[in-house]
UniProtKB/TrEMBL annotation:
It comes from the Eukaryota. Gene3D superfamilies: Leucine-rich Repeat Variant. It comes from Timema podura (Walking stick). This is Uncharacterized protein. InterPro entries: ARM-like (IPR011989), ARM-type_fold (IPR016024). It holds the Pfam family HEAT_GCN1_C_2.
Length: 116
C-alpha cells in the first residue's frame, strides 16, 4: 500500500498502523504483520510528501513503543532480515528517537472520518 500512487492511501495506512500500535498490546502483535508493516513504514519515512512521512514516523514510534522503552523495538528488529533491520535501525537513530521524545500531539490522533 505504501507504493500506491495516492498520498491519501499512504497516509491512511500509516495512521491505521499508528492506531494499532497504540491499542493492540505488544504481546498480541502478530510477528507476520510486523514483518510486513515495519518495512512499509520505514519506506514511508523516506517519502517526499510531508504528511506521509510524518504519519509513517508517528506510526513507527507507536508500533515500536519507543516512548515505553526498547523491548518492543528489539523484538521487531529480531524479526526482520538484515537489510530491513539496518534500515529500521538507521531511521530509529536519525529520526524516531527525536519524535518519541516530543510530547504526543493532536496530529497523531486518527480522524474517524477517514474510516467511516
Amino acid at each position: 500500500t505504501m507504493n500506491h500512487s495516492s498520498n491519501e492511501v499512504k497516509q491512511l495506512l500509516a495512521r491505521v498502523c499508528c492506531v494499532l500500535g497504540k491499542t493492540v498490546p505488544p504481546q498480541q502483535m502478530a510477528p507476520e504483520l510486523l514483518k510486513l508493516v515495519i518495512p512499509m513504514l520505514v519506506n514511508g519515512t523516506k517519502e517526499k510528501n510531508s504528511y506521509v512521512k510524518a504519519n509513517s514516523e508517528f506510526a513507527l514510534v507507536a508500533v515500536l513503543r519507543l516512548r515505553f522503552g526498547d523491548e518492543m523495538t528489539q523484538r521487531c528488529l529480531n524479526l526482520l532480515d538484515i537489510g530491513a533491520r539496518e534500515s529500521l535501525s538507521d531511521v530509529i537513530t536519525k529520526v524516531l528517537r527525536k519524535v518519541a521524545n516530543q510530547p504526543e500531539g493532536k496530529d497523531e490522533e486518527l480522524d474517524d472520518t477517514l474510516i467511516t
